[in-house]
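hey so i finally got around to running the thing on that chain from the lab meeting. sorry it took forever, my laptop kept dying and i had to restart like 3 times. anyway pasting the input first so we r on the same page abt which one it is
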Amino acid sequence: MNSPTLAALLISALAMTAIVAVRYVAASGLFAWITQRRLPGHYAGLDAQIRREIGWSLASAAIYGVPAGIIAWGWQQHGWTRIYADPHAYPLWWMPVSVLVYLFAHDTWFYWTHRWMHRPPVFRTVHSIHHASRPPTAWAAMNFHPVEAAVVGLFIPLLVFVVPIQAGMLAVVLTVMTVMGVTNHMGWEVFPARLVRSRAGNWLITASHHHQHHERYRCNYGLYFRVWDHLCGTDAGLAGWQQGKTP
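ok and heres what got predicted. didnt touch it at all, straight out
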């Protein structure tokens, strides 16, 4: 590998790491600000925990960003991956369907690796860092041990080599991943109760569902959907919140 190529790879990896870090700070900062406006004092006394969450999350940004930057360089320079720019390269119906395929595949991966991380040896050495956030805050979305960050964060970069997706639709997937990762850890329900407690809400994960996992540990393992929790008998329902209020 010549020096210009190595330099380009390094720049791409660093740039993507910076993008992931800025995206995290912007999204978590926005929802932390909303929490302060909506529920003043909700994160009172959690300053040390929040500093830990931010520290681990910024480390996770590098674990997410470096391989993503390398893959982005390979896509642009050599056509790596099944990412495509032209919306007409595949039937137009595939664009929204591909988003659902990616989200469900990611949710499936997350559910089963999440259950694995709750095995006592793995939990003690890896996943306990994430569960040290009690209660979780808007800053906890990427609060992972490096091993967990790799397990969680490398799935989508690998999936783009297998399942075709239009570049704009990949941006939609990453946006959903970011927003749900943050809002699921806010410690209060940001979505309307009429959605959370509707028939659709019975299959979707929001803070009311994920907070139960942080309280009870051995339940509610999913990321976006409650499908695997329902099928495997690990769905413990919702926290007893009303919208905008804590338990």
